[in-house]
């Protein structure tokens, strides 16, 4: 698997992995044993909870921290011309501000999968 990011976009991946580990602990100890879910339902519930928690964490991160402009001045050595370059924060070519919405969609799909399968 290839991870492609620019700027601080890799934080989206690390947040999702941390939320998967956190939701696995909850799902294994509470939900699966209490409600008698199958292994597939437990896995789908784990991903749904992790995606929802990731959306909750990435929404303020994308809105507050990642929107701050980071400008860098680059000078061309041949001409002496100075350019201002703004860096973007993306993960898999998607801006970090949109990942919270993607996580909500994933959470809804996986929650529906718990009840279907």
Tell me about this structure.
It is a single chain. With 117 residues, this protein is an alpha+beta fold. It has one domain. Helices cover 61% and strands 14% of the residues. The protein is built from 3 helices and 5 strands. The protein has helices at residues 10-35, 39-65, 99-116; strands at 5-6, 71-75, 82-86, 90-91, 94-95. Strands 1-4-5 form a 3-stranded antiparallel beta sheet, covered by helices on one side. The chain has a two-stranded antiparallel sheet with strand order 2-3. β4 (90-91) and β5 form a beta hairpin. α1 (10-35) packs antiparallel against α2 and α2 (39-65) runs antiparallel to α3 (99-116). It starts with a strand and ends with a helix. The model has no long low-confidence stretch (mean pLDDT 88).
> Gap between N and C termini, in Å?
27 Å
Report the order of strands and helices: EHHEEEEH
- Helix run count: 3
* Beta-strand content estimate: 5-15%
Strand order of the largest sheet: 1-4-5
Number of strands: 5
Structural class from helices and strands? alpha+beta
Fraction of residues in helices? 55-70%
Low-pLDDT stretches = none
Averaging pLDDT over every residue, what do you get?
88
Shape, principal axes of CA atoms: elongated
Q: How many domains comprise the coordinates?
A: 1
Radius of gyration (CA) equals 19 Å
What summary fits the major beta sheet?
3 strands, antiparallel
Summarize the structure in short.
This protein is α+β, with helices and mostly antiparallel strands and 117 residues long.
């Amino acid at each position: 698997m290839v991870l492609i990011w620019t700027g601080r976009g890799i934080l989206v991946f690390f947040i999702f992995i941390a939320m998967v580990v956190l939701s696995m602990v909850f799902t294994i100890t509470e939900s699966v044993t209490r409600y008698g879910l199958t292994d597939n339902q437990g896995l789908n519930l784990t991903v749904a909870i992790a995606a929802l928690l990731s959306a909750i964490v990435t929404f303020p991160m994308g809105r507050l921290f990642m929107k701050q402009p980071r400008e860098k001045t680059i000078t061309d050595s041949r001409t002496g011309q100075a350019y201002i370059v703004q860096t973007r924060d993306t993960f898999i070519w998607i801006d970090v501000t949109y990942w919270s919405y993607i996580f909500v969609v994933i959470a809804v799909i996986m929650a529906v999968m718990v009840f279907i399968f």
